[in-house]
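=== RUN LOG ===
request id: a7f3
mode: sequence -> structure
chains: 1
length: 648
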Amino acid sequence: MSLGQEFAVYSDWRSRLSGCIANFQNWLSENELSDAQTDLRLAQLQERLREDRLNVAFVAEFSRGKSELINAIFFAEFGNRMLPSSAGRTTMCPTELLYDPARPPRVELLPIQTRADNTSVSEYKGFRQEWQIVDLHVESAEAMQDALRHVSETTRVTPEEAAKLGFEVGEGGADVYRVGDDGLVEIPRWRHAVINFPHPLLQQGLVILDTPGLNAIGAEPELTLSLLPNAHAVLFILAADTGVTQSDLAIWKEHIGEGGTNKRGRMVVLNKIDGLWDELKTAAEVEAEIRKQVDSCATILELPARQVFPVSAQKGLVGKINGDADLLARSRLPQLEAALSGELIPAKRDIVRDNTETEFGEVNRRVKGLLDSRLAGLREQLTELTELRGKNKGVVEYMMGKVRAEKDEFEAGLQRYYAVRSVFSTLTNNLFAHLGLDSLRQLTQATRQSMLEATFSKSLSEAMAQFFQGARGALADSNSEISEILAMMEAVYKKFAVEHGLKLGSPTSFSLRRYEKEIGRLEQWCDTHLNTMINLLTHEKKNITQKFFEEVAVQVRRAFEHANKDAEVWLKAIMAPMETQVREHQIQLKRRLESIKRIHQATDTLEDRIAELEGVEQDLLGQMQSLKKVAGEVQQLLEPTPPLRQAA
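=== RESULT ===
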């Protein structure tokens, strides 16, 4: 299947999974087995599935055929080029193609002048009034092409303004912005573009990131700090006639191959192989020349040759539009699409499946444990009442005293539970004292003060290093608190299970390891882009300080914000099973005592009460079977097999 077909199958699987979880949640509500925490977790799970995105980034220097490749892979069925694709620079600013049904089809453009303040692109997305809007008339191909040409627009500014906006101004060379005869520098007109377009793949959650060349990537650090590392696939495009140029290699080393990003989903596309087609050469000679270029690129980029895909995007697009199967096959575009779908879609599905399985599994085990607890309590009541058959009033009184003593013993044990709650609250406060945003804010302020007061480059460098040391220390201290909370809850779970028969299982584990890795990645980026001897000696202290806090510290804050949210969810999840089981056990003891009291007071016959409880037992067994069925529908979709394409 094509990438589009594979993604459609994946989208269908995700929708059915969300629907089954919704059915599970409705079933819990109908059977009065839900609570606020369970509802919240299932609602968040469904929301994540609805908002799930598959991010594919295309990275290349100018004139590598990047926009044409996007057209060929995703938009050939429109019978024309969706994105502008011609000789020279066509995409001047980072461009996201996505679909948000809450907004009409349009192109949103953020002016380049917004770089002059201290606000990132992601923050500007919350201030839509700052963006220029161009309507996208999807019923007309020509109107769409006119609207999309805006991403190619440039403006001319003074060299001073260009430098202020982050563009390197120099003399000669293609990798700098040059001063023209009019004394001005041509720079992109827009800082960022978002194209909201109701394409079937975009409607299903595909997000395409089209990035301009090296200068624009370097001038917009959010690309390399956030967007590119978080992309599920990055396609790096080279030209077959030039191979790996110096600027290509700079992009690869700094931002893709060695930029601290995961290499899974990273592919190299050797485009424009039709330039090597030669009617005076045999097919074997052309193939040998293409293979030579592939091997050369793989060697320079230090990749296996199988990760380099020679294609002709232009011929592939023409072949698709004209229905020319031979030309399409010769373009080799299908091989790239097959590799992309074969690696990207299954990897993305595995991530979604694992996350859903963990979250749903905990909720399902908790509900099952609740039903098991109810059944055990009910059967204990039945056993007690059955043993009263033919017994005199004294035996009934003895049994009532026994249950009352058990109830008193449990309620005395509740004091230990309340003590645990108190200790848990203290440990939680300790955790957020290390992990909370207040401590990070203090660290950030102290670092800013140190950098502003620094008189030597060494002092500036040490301040940045100490910031990361402080961030790592906060995470390490937080992990210690998490381990203490987990150890305490494991001991309490076991104690209540042994003493009172509560079915608690094991508490949910949690780790901040992913955020430790993220801090390490950001520190590596800082050490290669800001905290270098050349930068410290050639740039003003004020500029380095500003860039550090605008670009690096902002990303560290985001990592801590996500860590805080994850920790809050875990703390609720680890305490909720115990709260539920304690409450349920109290109810069961009260019911047992009430049953025996009613029989002792002759307000109810023994046989009637036994029959009533046997009916409740059958209802409970029916609920357990029903739970198994409704949860099984979700679990069946979470099975690693059958393959994705068979699940449609």
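=== NOTES ===
The longest helix spans residues 541-600.
The chain is about 65% helix and 10% strand.
=== END ===
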